[in-house]
Amino acid sequence: MRPRTWVLLLAALFALMQLATVEGRDTPDSKNYVSYALSLTGADEREAAAATIDHYCAGRAAMAHRAQLVDVVRFHAPDPAPRVLEECREQEWRQVEARLAAGDTGGRTVPFMPERFMRIFEVRPGYPLVLAPFVALLGVTWGVWTAGVLITCAGGVLAYLVLRTLAAPVPLALTGMALYLVLPCGTTAMRPMTEGLMLALTLAALWGCALVLGGTRPRAGLALVGGALFALFTVKHSQTLFLGACLAAAGLAVAVRRRWRGTPAGRGPVALAAVGCAGVLGTVLVSRLLDYPSVSESVQDLLTDHFARPDRERPWAEFFQLQGNFWMEWTRRQLWEPLFLAALAAGALGARRRPAFGVFLAAAACTGILNQAGHPDINIWGDRLITLAWLLPVLGVPLLLEPVLRRAVVPAQGAPVEPVG
Q1: Of 287, 121, 128, 142, which Cα lies nearest the Cα of 196?
Q2: What residues contact 147, with CB distance under 8 A and at least 6 apart?
Q3: With contact defined as beta carbons under 8 Å apart, do 396 and 347 qualify?
Q4: What's the rounded mean pLDDT across residues 303-310?
Q5: Per-residue pLDDT tens for 252-278?
Q6: CA–CA separation, 60 vs 55, rounded Å?
């Protein structure tokens, strides 16, 4: 079959697998994005609240039903789904009604939480804009699911395109796409959250880096990197800051290393560093101009349990103390179950086969570490904040397998090999 046929086949297989869980992927933050998308379709605040609460609580009920079916003590008990659904609706409406009555009706999102917390989501229109047409056409449940499938598959296709641009054979490029879909990248991208778009846009930026470094279409590559950073600003502006800074550092590192070895630095790394710096500067200026929530506000949100408690008097001292505690516990858990660390090591070894691009790949993966460092909460749903670091094995492992594939293919193209013995 043609490569595009294999790509479509992998995407279709992934979509079929996702039919096993249509409901129950939501996190508490998903309510904010769904209600934002509904408001973009023209729904008023109460209509958006009703549809969002029904969707969220239906997911909670579905999760309770599935959990009860395999509970070794209560599997023969009555289905808890109706009770969970009713209790969830009552709780959510009680909170929303109280805030609506208090006049908290200024934003695009339904006031599920205090206004200061909701402000964080008001400045992230990117994902709701993508979600809105699907919700309008298919309803909330199937609209959210369909958008998740398409966003996730788009990320897989971008992984394939990056590897093909790096001259990886088709089977290895397909391997990269498959790894993206089956590793935590695919699981996280399917959640109704910003991470799916963040992963896809980061891969788009890496595709642009590959085009620039390969010298095939440098202008298109730079435009792709700049466009990805711009789109990422609408999805989560702090991630634009991280990615821009990491790409700038990578470009500088490649240029310095080439100079150190006595070879020309080349325009590509320098141009990519300039685009990264422009992304950082633009993010800082525009976010201040639009009065986006500051870093200090984000730290207060973390330490006050989403502003449910009074602001901390010494937030930065507590934040850095929490950082130390978090990374010690995180390291302990990773050493206990070192799959993630092993995958990162394998990806790093593979990235060395494309030295210049490997630096940019490692830089993009570091944005996952930075994102997690900005939210040192060990209980974040499914380690989703650090998921961007999985891009290193997604693209690096296929490159690591390249010599193995070439050794397997070359004998078949030459003289027949006699069996041993």
Answers
A1: 128
A2: 130, 131, 134, 135, 192
A3: yes
A4: 85
A5: 999 999 888 888 778 899 999 999 999
A6: 9
